[in-house]
Amino acid sequence: MTVELSPERVEESLDQLIFNGKGLIPAIIQDDESGDVLMLAWMDREAVRRTMTSGRVTFWSRSRQEYWRKGDTSGHRQYVRSIARDCDEDTLLVRVIQLGAACHTGSRSCFTDRELPAVHGVVERDEPEA
């Protein structure tokens, strides 16, 4: 299904977002089919606009200081399924169809095999268990 967005609607949506002091907003990329978190990258206003209007995910590279559309060089493309802002309007969740690896290392997710040790919290319930 193709959705056409008016320039006014795009600008209204962008105006609702809160970008940091460098003009960036973090974007969590999630696999639309599995729900797996694939990666986190940064977008500026123009990258969000391109992502909203093209159907492909565009990021702002902080190190190269340029736009990069996921998959243009690797072939591991991300196709937009939805974009949501969080309750503080300072983080995006972009659900995608991911073709190939999401991580530059070749892993499906940037978080694969990268767990840190952590104490597991004990769940305390107000209700007695049956």
UniProtKB/TrEMBL annotation:
Annotated InterPro entries: PRA-CH (IPR026660), PRib_AMP_CycHydrolase_dom (IPR002496), PRib_AMP_CycHydrolase_sf (IPR038019)
Any Gene Ontology biological process: L-histidine biosynthetic process
Cofactor comment text: Binds 1 Mg(2+) ion per subunit. Binds 1 zinc ion per subunit.
Keyword Mitochondrion found: no
Primary enzyme class: hydrolase
Residue sites binding Mg(2+) per the record: 86, 88, 90
This protein's name: Phosphoribosyl-AMP cyclohydrolase
